Every structure is written in C-alpha cells, then in structure tokens.
Amino acid sequence: MYKKKPVIFLYLAVFITIISFLAISETSYCFVANEVLVVVNSRMSGGKGIAKKYMKIRDIPEENILSTSLTLHEVMEREEYEKGLLLPVQEKIAALKKKGRNIYAIVLVYGVPLKVMPPTPDWKTEDIIADLRREKNKLQKDGEKQTDAEKLIKELAARIDELTGTNKRAAVDSELMLAKAKGYDLSGWIENPYFIGFQNKKTFLKKNDILLVSRLDGPDEKTVYRILEDTIAAEHKGLQGTAYFDARWPLPEKKQLSGYAQWDASLHKAAQVVERRMQVKLDAQPELFAPGSAPNAALYAGWYSLGKYIDSFTWVQGAVGYHIASAECSTLKKAASPVWCVQMLNKGVAATIGPVYEPYVQGFPLPELFFAALTEGYMDLGESYLISLPYISWQMVLVGDPLYRPFDPLPAVKKDMTPNQ
C-alpha cells in the first residue's frame, strides 16, 4: 500500500498551522450553502427526494440542483463521465456564474456512480495488450522461477497496467474536484493546492481550479436520510463521546518520517489534538481494537484491517471516522460488503472517508490535520477534508454533508480569529 514516490510534507505545530491557515484569507477555503451544487442521477429512484430534503435543511437555492441521466452501476465509463457528468456540471456552474453565483462545492447524491474507468484503449493498443498478456500468462504457466523470468513478468505486468490505464481510473468525486481545471494529465495523482503540507510549494494547479466534492450516499435511501438526521442532531447538541485512534507502533522520536511511519505517527498526533475536545483512547499495538471494546465512539481513525471491518465500536449520533486501508470505499451499495466505509455507515456513522481503489498510504487525509481542523470548530467537515487531503484526481471519497460542523470554535480559535483584540 505504500508507494515509493518523493513526497514533501511540512512538519508543523498542528494548532498553529490550522489557526494561521484560517487567518490568511488568501489560503482559506470557506463556502456557504448557496455556493453548493447538488447533483442527482435522474435514473435513480429516491435520489431527487434526498436532494430536496438536503437542500431544504441547508437552505440551498432550488436552482443549485443538477439532474443528469447516468448509469445505475457504481462504475462508469470515462466517456459517460465526461459527457454525462463532467460537461453538465461545467455548464451548470457557468450558468450560475452568469447569474452572479459562484460554485465552490459539489454534493453528489445517492445514485451518482462512485468510480470512473480510464479511457478505452484504441484497437491497436488492445492488440498489444492481448499479446503482452499472452506472453505473461505463458511465463507464469511454465512455472519459471528464475530471476530473469520473474523480472520479465513484472515488467510485462507494469507495461500492461500502463497501456490499460490502471493509474488513470479514479473516484468520480476526486476527478470531479478538477471540473474547473483544464489540461491536466489523467495518469496518477495531482497535488492538492489546499493541502496544508503543500502551502510553501508551487503546485501544478491553483486553488481556484479546485472544487470540494463530497457525497450523500450509502447502501440504501434509509441510511442517507439517517446521515442527514444525525448530522443536524449532532450540530444542535454538539458531538460528544470518545475518540479512538488505532496506531500500530509507539510514537517515534525521529521527526522526519514518510509512508507508513508518518501516517502512524499522525494518529498519535491526532490523539493529542483531540484531547482538547473529548476523552481519547489511543492504541499503539499491532492489534486493532477488539470487537465490542470501543463504546460511545464519536471520532475514529486507525489501521490496518484490509477489507474487513472490525465491529469494535458503538457509534454515537453524528460520529465521524475513517480506516486507513486500500479500497475501503470500493462499494457503497453492497450492504453485505465487509469494507469499512459500508459497514461504518451500516453501523451508524454520519461521515466517513475511503478510497475506491489502491490510493497508497500517502493518498489518505493526514489524521492530525483532519481532526485538528474539525475539532477546533472553525472549519466544517468538507473544509477539514480539503486541507488534509494530499492528492486529487485520485481515489479518495468523502461521504457526508460537507457543511456538517459538529463543534463550536474553541476559545483559542475564537481569540485568534478576532482582529485587534
């Protein structure tokens, strides 16, 4: 799951970073309800009803809805994505802009496909792919174990992936974040200019090129309506409970970390951050929280149980959490799937995050940043996600109301955000 690719992150004091980020208008990202576009699949029964309820709850203008006809499958072809979703979104944004309304966020409603495939290869490329696969299968069938044969098999597999465009498939949500951008490469990930770790780095895209995209989704309509109800209830009473963070190793003394070590250390730092808000339980052993051992769970981040949800938690109303493992959001429609996103929604969370395909660990939101922003209370769910997410045009999905704000601002934030006091 770890991809060995140069990544530069800034190791900053979390609270100072978040507060400074918010205080500088040039880098902040704050949007309001009338800047949200709600997208519905007209072919999905129940989708429009959910959209209308959500727009009424959040006072989103009626004209900020886009209904477009899409496949009912969770996976859509690239051509359908471009013609059936991307183009209508771009046209709707342009039409609203002419009326003086800028769109900065998109909410995809139950029924909008989850994944977009790479462009279909032309027939010449398909012939080459077929030849390479035959060659690879022959080597594997012959059972050759020599070093040269194994090396050749790996090279053939890499070439097949390149030609089929495996690294050009993505989450619909992550791809749609670039609906305002033009001329970017579909191959691999693109640095998110809103990510705090890239603030002193020149990125290919600018902040104005990026849209925040999340979705109100789940295995059935009932789950989505429950998410909305829990979100509003938690905002009224405040999110209360216990925060659980499941690292695998003790916090290292070394400061400059990467890959697994950095994300594991970030879970430790997230636990320290959230202690200002609620009781925290941090586990730093290889074993995960045991089944039934995490009652009253309000927040969660941890790893690593691949594609197998562990029923450790009793989730409070409005709970937010995510599990760091590959393809944990590979489906949202199969209620019986053991992947974490589906099961967390089944069991009662109001918001979760996960990848549709292999994202590599660097593709996940950095826990210390996400939970710092969320629990300080100045940023809502969507903004907290945006500033903690390193890469876009990639694999990650945010399920939940982006306007969800479960905490009032902490006193320190209120003071720092008040000018001339």
TrEMBL record:
Say which domain of life the source belongs to: Bacteria
Q: Which InterPro entries match?
A: CHP03790
Instruction: Kindly state which keywords UniProt assigns to this record, in alphabetical order.
Output: Coiled coil, Membrane, Transmembrane, Transmembrane helix
Q: What positions belong to coiled-coil segments?
A: 129-173
**Which sequence ranges are marked TM in the entry?**
7-24
According to UniProt, the name of this protein is TIGR03790 family protein
Q: Which organism is it from?
A: Desulfopila aestuarii DSM 18488
